[in-house]
Specification:
397 residues; alpha/beta; Rossmann fold; 13-stranded mixed sheet; two-stranded antiparallel sheet; transport; Nucleoside_phosphorylase_sf; catalytic activity; signal; Pur_nuclsid_perm
């Protein structure tokens, strides 16, 4: 009898373990459907969202295959309504991490709003240390031919020439598709209005440094206090500095968007992140109209009068602390506004009043920049040549 009892107890124990394991496995297969997904690029940007009173994204930590080995987890609130990740810096890391997120079976992202929230270099013509910027356009400015400045043609103002072109002011003749992205202007305006209600941080170090820009009237915004600014962002893996390169990429931003974009911030990831999200949209996994691009100014892209470009670079990031703090200051109200207003407004989406997507028109519609849709206004259905034209005379050498 005792033997039968012990056998039964043993079997019940085994059954309990099996059931518990099945429950754990079932939980591991839970699909999260975040209302907001915050995208950070490196550890300090990610840490800005931790330990805050408004919500706790560290309640659920989910390891995602394909994420950076330095930042292998997505972090979510207990109910999964708000999540956050760190891509790793520069374009390859950003594209790889966001692709892994989009393809993960653990997430339903079809109704998710994405808040790209990081620091950036900033032009003193438009903003200052600690300023919070929201972009409509992201331009991949380094996708060009490049001469060393010591070997460029004498008549060229810069060593950068658009792909397939023969002069710096000629629109690129070869397009890769990632040169320009445009996001939802109506959603951007909601984010701007919400962020303007926040109290932005400032500090003595930043105040003292930005005084240097007051001597040049063109740099008035750079000498002012932090504010919320509507302006656009330039993507490049190269961390550039100086008046000449800043002017060159200002021109690139204008050229690639047919004059629609206003160059303002400099960073290393946004076009890569947007391309991964756009491919997710083409696959029906992401709504491209639900993206906000927010960058805060941590350093200037060019020196103040009398300062060298090298000194501007090697001084570091004088506004780093307040740029990180203002990610949270401006970002938290945006996140909480979306979550609290989910049923009333945001669940159904914010209808864009502008074109959204890439320079090809891959999602449908006709871009208001570049050569127009290569898909005749319809969504991309098949592979096409990415070369616009290359009928060039052969030059004598």
């Amino acid at each position: 009898m005792l033997c039968v009892y012990l056998t039964s107890l043993f079997l019940l124990t085994i059954l309990a373990v099996v059931v518990q394991g099945a429950v754990v496995e079932a939980r591991s297969r839970d699909t999260f459907a975040p209302k907001v997904f915050i995208i950070s690029m490196f550890d300090a940007e990610g840490d800005a969202w931790h330990g805050i009173p408004e919500f706790n994204v560290l309640e659920r930590n989910i390891t995602i295959p394909g994420f950076s080995p330095l930042f292998p987890q997505a972090h979510c609130t207990r109910d999964g309504s708000i999540c956050q990740l760190v891509t790793g810096e520069a374009e390859i890391n950003a594209a790889s991490t966001i692709t892994a997120l989009v393809q993960s079976p653990l997430f339903d992202l079809t109704h998710t709003y994405f808040l790209i929230a990081g620091i950036a270099g900033i032009s003193p013509r438009l903003g200052t240390l600690g300023s919070v910027t929201f972009a409509r356009f992201a331009v991949q400015v380094a996708l060009q031919f490049e001469f060393d400045a010591r070997e460029k043609p004498a008549e060229f103002p810069t060593g950068y020439v658009p792909q397939g072109s023969m002069a710096p002011d000629e629109f690129p003749q070869d397009l890769y598709g990632t040169e320009v992205f445009e996001v939802n202007e109506e959603l951007r305006q909601i984010a701007i209005r919400t962020a303007k209600k926040a109290t932005l941080f400032d500090d003595t170090q930043s105040q003292q440094y930005r005084v240097n820009y007051a001597t040049n009237s063109a740099f008035g915004p750079g000498a002012a206090a932090p504010s919320v600014v509507a302006c656009d962002t330039a993507t490049s893996d190269v961390f550039w500095t100086g008046n000449l390169l800043a002017a060159a990429f200002e021109n690139t931003t204008t050229l690639f968007t047919n004059g629609s974009a206003t160059y303002c911030t400099t960073q290393q990831e946004d076009n890569a992140t947007l391309e991964a999200l756009m491919r997710g949209a083409l696959a029906g996994r992401v709504d491209f109209s639900r993206i906000i691009v927010m960058r805060t100014g941590s350093d200037f892209d060019r020196p103040f009068d009398g300062q060298t470009a090298a000194a501007n670079l090697f001084v570091g990031t004088p506004g780093f602390d307040i740029a990180i703090r203002n990610i949270r200051a401006a970002g938290v109200p945006i996140v909480t506004t979306i979550v609290s207003g989910w049923k009333a407004r945001f669940e159904r989406g914010v209808m864009p009043n502008n074109y959204i997507g890439d320079i090809f028109g891959s999602l449908g519609g006709t871009p208001d920049f570049g050569p127009g849709s290569i898909f005749r206004g319809k969504s991309a259905l098949r592979k096409r040549s990415l070369r616009l034209r290359m009928s060039r005379p052969i030059l004598a050498v």
